[in-house]
Amino acid sequence: MKIFKFLFSLVLLCVLAGGIYVFVLFSNIGVENYIFKDFKPNLTTQIFDRNGKLIANIFDKEHRFYANYDELPPRLIEALVAIEDTAFFEHDGVNIDAIARAVIKMIQAGRAVEGASTLTQQFIKNTELTPEKTITRKIKEALLAYKLENELSKEQIIERYLNHIFFGHGYYGVKTAARGYFRKELNSLSLKEIAILVGLPKAPSSYDPTRNLNLSLSRANAVVQRMFNLGWISEAEYKQALAEVPTIYDDTLTQNAAPYVVDEVIKRLSPVLPDLKSAGYKIELNIDLNVQELAQNALKFGYDEIVKRDKDANLSILNGAMVVMDHQNGDVLALVGGVDYNKSNFNRATQSLRQPGSTFKPFVYQIAIDLGYNPMSKVADISRVFEGGEGEKDWKPSNLGGSLQGLITLKDALTRSRNLATINLALDIGLDVLYQRILAFGFSDKIPADLSIVLGSFGISPLDFAKFYSMFGNYGVIEEPLIIKNVKNANDELILSFESNSTKVAEPEQIFLTLDMMKNVVNHGTGSNAKVADIEVAGKTGTSNESVDTWFVGITPEIEALIWYGNDNNKPLKRIEGGARTAAPVFKTFLSEYIKLYPQTKRVFNVPDKVRKGIYDGQSEYYTPKSPFPQKSIHSLGEDEMLF
Question: Whole-model pTM?
């Protein structure tokens, strides 16, 4: 009798001690508040083009899209509960019956053969606790499950579970997995696809359908079988689901279609949005993915042509860049920072400073036009020698090919890119006047204040250069290039919006005179390889000393495209390379495809109101009140023949 009293007392003592232990444990459990009230897991930010097409997903540690409870199809919830926790909507966080069954089977088998964790416990284990298999952890798990069930509704727990859990292949959350594996939204999933998804959390790597499709299908069939046994689906649904083999996609997580663009966006937004990669922002760009692809293909075409001409080209340093912009509003439609991002992620469109060479000449000619010169004004195409300072060599610039033309018109000088004529024009204008007007356009005051500037002897990035070139297509207004249009938060609320800064630097009619000369460059001059039928193109070629940099900038009535090629280490290309041969054909390739893609694009430049046309030296030419023809016999077309 004393023994029974002793044992009874011992049992009571153990129960009391256990109760005290559990109470102390419960009191000291520390939990992250976000799983109870403020559940905000890391979310993937998405970047879209101007047409709503996905450019890339960007994230830090976890790739996740969030699905609210009302986005979760009832069939998805049924399938999850069927395979993981059939009594989910009946228990209080811990399923005592399931625990009892598991214990009995463990005793019978001599080992653990069946789990008894509820979905609530699984969620707790994945968010709050370590994976260690100890009694203390299991008690903590059960206590927290009870607490969570008292704090949240069943719907809230399901929502948190399906958004937090890992589904393999780098996908966190069921919405992410549906988009990744099937390229579908949740409401478009078939029963078999749902079964594949809910079967994944048990062993995400093993059941990943991109790696082990048969194993994944087997697990999914077990889910379907369970739903049928419970009477939750019909026999017809059961048979159809068993027979289905869904299409599985093995996409990259980022799905990055324009990596140079994405890098630039991250660079620009990270300082103002420190949580850029974890807050689920939606970023809309002005980039057009269709145009981006055309630009990428055109740049690669030009690169391949260089390699064909030079079998000894160093492919590790040979590269290019291209920018396409709507010059009327600054929207950057395409930005390609290199031929192959996988080989080099250095963005030559934004980070590389290259000498523009003769592509800078139109700015010199525009200054002359703004000062009252006319395209028919004459300039001396003759040789000059400029004495160097102490210890410096004399500078003796020359034309390509070494020829001299004597007196030629500004139009001919620009058309044929005559270096000496341009230098002499700069001297006629006056170097101080020229330099100050160049600065007035907005160019950096770090550019050289000497005559070499007229030949583009300074460094500038292709994107910055595209900004200044917008003044020609936009009739005297420079537009700041705009890559990003706006940013919305995870709730689709607009938080950032971007607009171009416009700067008027010249009058439309004066710009048109230079634009017309640049049309002649393409129609009859160094840019003839860029000519495209049935659309007006203005442009300028450029080649720096020894073919280190080769350029072409082409302008249509709606867009401009700037192309550059060179070696990353500033070593010269082969002597035969230059703007006319290397870059101009790339513009033609691009524009030919662009007008197929957008056949409604405008084909003819507007002629400003103050522009007039007359006969000069037997040719029909343009003039304005500020830039009349040079003094000589002029036959005007008359008021009724003027162009507006």
Answer: 0.89
What stretch of H or E contains 543?
A: strand 538-543
Structure tokens at 36: 């109870």
254-302: per-residue pLDDT in tens? 999 999 999 999 999 999 999 999 999 999 999 999 999 999 999 999 9
DSSP code of residue 166: B
Is the four-CA dihedral 587, 588, 593, 597 of positive or negative sign?
Answer: positive
Question: CA-to-CA distance for 533 and 530, rounded, in angstroms?
Answer: 10
**Tokens describing residue 482:** 């705009």
Assign 301 to helix, strand or coil: helix
Question: In Å, how far are 33, 48, 175, 346 from 172, measured between CA atoms?
Answer: 20, 21, 8, 31
Distance CA 421, CA 425 (A): 6
- Between the alpha carbon of residue 5 and those of residues 9, 10, 15, 17, the distances in Å are 6, 8, 15, 18
Identify the residue whose tokens are 């630009």: 295
Residues 6 or more apart whose Cβ sits within 8 Å of residue 364 = 422, 425, 426, 429, 434, 454
Cα separation, 376 vs 372, in Å, equals: 11
The bridge status of strand 318-325 relative to strand 332-336 is antiparallel
**pLDDT, average across residues 149-175:** 94
C-alpha 353: how far from its chain's center?
21
Continuous segment of H or E residues that includes residue 333: strand 332-336
Q: What are phi and psi of 461, to 5 degrees?
A: -80, 150
- The separation between CA 557 and the C-alpha centre of its own chain, rounded to angstroms, equals 26
Q: Which position has the token pair 């996908």?
A: 171
